[in-house]
Known about the structure:
Radius of gyration: 50 Å
Helix content: 55-70%
Amino acid sequence: MFGHRYQTLLGAAGVLAFLAGLAWIFFFDALHLRPGIRLHVEFSRLSILDTGAPVKIGAQKVGVVEKIQFRPDVGRVRVTLWIDQRMAPHIFSNSRVYLESLSLIGERHVNIVLPSADEPLGHPVTDGDVLRGQDPAHMDNLLSKLYDSLITNLRLWRELGPQVRELEAQLREFDRHRPFLEDTLLPRARSILRRARAFPEPGGWVHVGDRLPDLSLLAQITKLLDDLEAASARLKGFSRELEQGVHVWTRAPFAPRIRRLKARLERIENELEALQQEGRKLVAALDAPEGTLQSFLRDPSIYNDLRMMARRLKNAPLDLLF
């Protein structure tokens, strides 16, 4: 009989202990056996976070999430953190507070780290301070942007596919003509360019009088005409060489350019011939048997005296003033 009573008392004590444990869990869970401070962290938005989630500095737990409340007056979510008093000096007013999880489906916790290296440390936090947390990323926006990027890349590859294949075909066609380009076309083009660079510049003909100051004006004009004839002869030779190489160039896709170059050379030849004819007419008109004009053209001293007289007449007003 006494044994049955002891069993009843033992069972009742076990049930009471179990109920006391449940009461401790539900009613005294917010109690902390160590001294601490409470910090308020505000977020513009908050993802999955439960009360009782750990608060960590690095890998060390320093507190827990005590309360989560929405503040409609400012449109933010305030998270109240309980922090161990011993770890409070390691948290500053400008510390970065954000949510973190060890894996994609792992439990989230609050992580507190130092501010960036270029930012000075603020003052240590005290009880009741309000910090600004870093808002978590919008996973739905991130996934939407990732999906849009994937669709754009797929559409781009579909559009570029035919162009890439066409480019490959053109490259294969180019490889088929590579021996002709390297062995025949490029050497001929270099030869023509070298000859074109060696062609005398027409701009130098205007300085014939400066290069031959001791000759008479008629001799200078005659020299200019001789240079024009030499240039015309070289240009005709260059045109003939180009004509001989046209049968090679016509195999390449440069035939229209060659025809335009040939037409330009023909126009230059015609202009040189017209200039030569006008020059010969001028020499024939000036080359009279006798007379003042003939003496002026053949005697360089008269020409020099006239230039000196013109210079003196130019300076005459200055001589009168000074």
